[in-house]
TrEMBL record:
The keyword Magnesium applies. It is found in: Cytoplasm. It is an enzyme of class 2 (transferase). It comes from Arsenicicoccus bolidensis. This is ATP phosphoribosyltransferase. It catalyses: 1-(5-phospho-beta-D-ribosyl)-ATP + diphosphate = 5-phospho-alpha-D-ribose 1-diphosphate + ATP. PROSITE patterns: ATP_P_PHORIBOSYLTR. Residues 212-283 form the Histidine biosynthesis HisG C-terminal domain. The gene is hisG.
Length: 287
């Protein structure tokens, strides 16, 4: 069976579980469950701490896992990123007392508090900066006030928490992170260089979920003489489906449209002369 690690708690847990369900896999109903076997799909799920997922995958204990890109890089694991999953996006940045620092060079010789010590050390080494990295498990933003560090490196969303602590971000982002699917470094080439079928099936299913979330299916009727103008607005992924109606002066068109553009596309189609414009969510797809 394919062995897959899923975060058991935190901001990654619920979206990861939801995505697996949308991809057709069974998931636990009780948060106390640590292992679940999906016999129909040949997958065994292990519910682990988000920080531990990359470690288990890198060690080969499990074949695949879902974790954050920041957690993967911080772990030092040999696991590799297979694909980005589009949720739990965040930016990892340096922050210091307002007006005290302006670039990474200012960090030299200072103390940096963070929960991601491996990631920060690697980043500083890349820039040739020598600094003391102070590892903290939480409440990093108070480290400067309490005298533990001169600056911090942490996940930044709105920046409100940092401002409340008298801190401001500076320099370029250390990392832009999101949830990722990871695998063992040797996965996907077990025999004669051919990809692991089970791994490819799971990857393809998750990709189908991502596409289904990004697109809608749009149907509309259009006068035959205007169809070329209409399909230019809705070209679809390959080409739209155009079918004749009982009234031969009209055709029915079906196409996939980016979800974010739905209303703008509907407005343009109506302006051209299309009518009966309908939008349907896509539950799953394969491309």
């Amino acid at each position: 069976m394919l062995r897959v690690a899923v975060p058991n708690k935190g901001s990654l847990s619920e979206p990861a579980t939801t995505m697996m369900k949308e991809a057709g896999y069974a998931q636990r109903r009780d948060t106390k469950e640590l292992v679940l076997t999906d016999a129909d799909n040949g997958v065994e799920f292990f519910y682990l701490r988000p920080r531990d997922v990359a470690v288990y995958v890198g060690a080969g204990t499990v074949d695949l896992g879902i974790t954050g890109r920041d957690l993967l890089l911080d772990s030092g694991s040999t696991a590799r990123e297979v694909m980005a999953l589009g949720f739990a996006r965040s930016t990892f940045r340096f922050a210091a007392p307002a007006g005290s620092m302006g670039s990474v060079a200012d960090i030299d010789g200072r103390r940096v508090a963070t929960s991601y010590s491996g990631l920060v050390r690697s980043h500083l080494d890349t820039h040739g900066i020598t600094a003391e990295v102070v590892h903290l498990d939480g409440a990093v933003e108070t480290a400067v006030t309490l005298g533990v560090a001169d600056l911090i490196a942490d996940v930044v969303e709105t920046g409100t928490t940092l401002r409340n602590a008298g801190l401001e971000v500076f320099g370029d982002p250390i990392l832009r992170s999101e949830a990722v699917l990871i695998s063992r470094s040797d996965a996907g080439g077990a025999t004669q260089g051919e990809p692991d079928p089970a791994l490819e099936t799971l990857r393809r299913r998750l990709h189908g979920v991502l596409v289904a979330r990004q697109y809608v299916l749009m149907d509309y009727d259009c006068p035959s003489e205007l169809v070329e103008r209409a399909v230019a607005v809705t070209p679809g992924l390959e080409s739209p489906t155009v079918s004749p109606l009982h009234d031969r002066s009209w055709v029915a068109v079906r196409s996939m449209v980016p979800r974010k553009q739905t209303n703008a596309v509907m407005d343009e189609l109506y302006r051209i002369g299309a009518r009966g414009i309908l939008v349907t969510d896509i539950a799953a797809c394969r491309l």
